[in-house]
């Protein structure tokens, strides 16, 4: 299957690398918002120096069980960081489920919208995307973080996720979004057990068969921590020590023709992607 690209973004001829910039109190725990904002911008600049093609700025933690910030709080977190990084020339994505946050982030220079709810959380968001006509990531989602793991029930996770994504794609097209603006994402860890995540990764071709560019976010997620659990204690490997495993997933996903990988450590995944591209050339 030929590689697919959404219009209006870089096309380096290999899988893209999206660096994660989380602007949430739990990611920068030692100070107030100003500090969090400065730290997030500085972190984004490091990811860009490491070669990130896109930086994804998000102000809402989607960890299972997390509470939602207010719109005002999300705007306060995200906007200064989007503005600074876009001003520095970066291709900035905003990770939000809210139309208002997406609209203000686009005004501040963001060039794509990463909606982990796939248009379900805020019906105004697909309508906004139809007006803005910028790339739009539609992720598989079954509800907000607070109760999401209770929804991790599937007949066949891969066919169910593909079917539910198809419904979101149809809704996006019906809202007036052009097909060449859409990206799909199986939503690893969102209402998924570790076993579900592995099945989705092993059958990515069925997600690619939706005919749209695919984004995958496996970086440092707990299903990797489980595979790398301490053989003696059985304790999962802590998140910061999951980057080599993340890079291994990146190789396999890039070899499957995934359009973009959303990761915390850009260096290791960019190396993985460059080797995979050369291997397949
Ligand atoms: N995962 C997280 C946040 N945003 N966006 C997309 N498109 N895909 C993902 O898998 C995804 C996402 C949660 O991960 P984090 O808390 O480590 O950022």
Descriptive account of the structure:
With 281 residues, the chain is an alpha/beta fold. It has a single domain, classed as Dihydropteroate synthase-like (TIM Barrel). It contains 10 helices and 8 strands. Helix 5 (157-175) links the parallel strand 5 (136-139) and strand 6. Helix 1 (33-49) runs parallel beside helix 2 (71-87). The longest helix has 19 residues, at 157-175. Residues 20, 22, 62-63, 95, 114, 116, 137, 139, 185, 187-188, 215, 217, 220, 262 line the site of pterin-6-yl-methyl-monophosphate.
Task: Based on the model shown, name its key terms.
single chain; 281 residues; alpha/beta; TIM Barrel; eight-stranded parallel β-sheet; 42% helix; binds pterin-6-yl-methyl-monophosphate
Brief sketch in words of this structure:
The protein has 281 residues and is of the alpha/beta class. Helices cover 42% and strands 12% of the residues. It has a single domain, classed as Dihydropteroate synthase-like (TIM Barrel, Alpha-Beta Barrel).
Structural class: alpha/beta
Determine the mean pLDDT. 94
The SSE order reads: EHEHEHEHEHEHHEHHEH
What number of structural domains do the residues give? 1
Described by its quaternary structure, the protein is single chain
Reconstruct the topology from this structure.
Blueprint (H helix, E strand, L loop, with lengths): L15 E7 L10 H17 L4 E5 L12 H17 L4 E4 L3 H9 L4 E4 L8 H9 L3 E4 L17 H19 L6 E4 L8 H9 L1 H5 L6 E2 L5 H6 L15 H13 L4 E4 L2 H15 L1
Parallel strand pairs: 1-2, 1-8, 2-3, 3-4, 4-5, 5-6, 7-8
The site of pterin-6-yl-methyl-monophosphate has 16 residues, from strand 1 and strand 5.
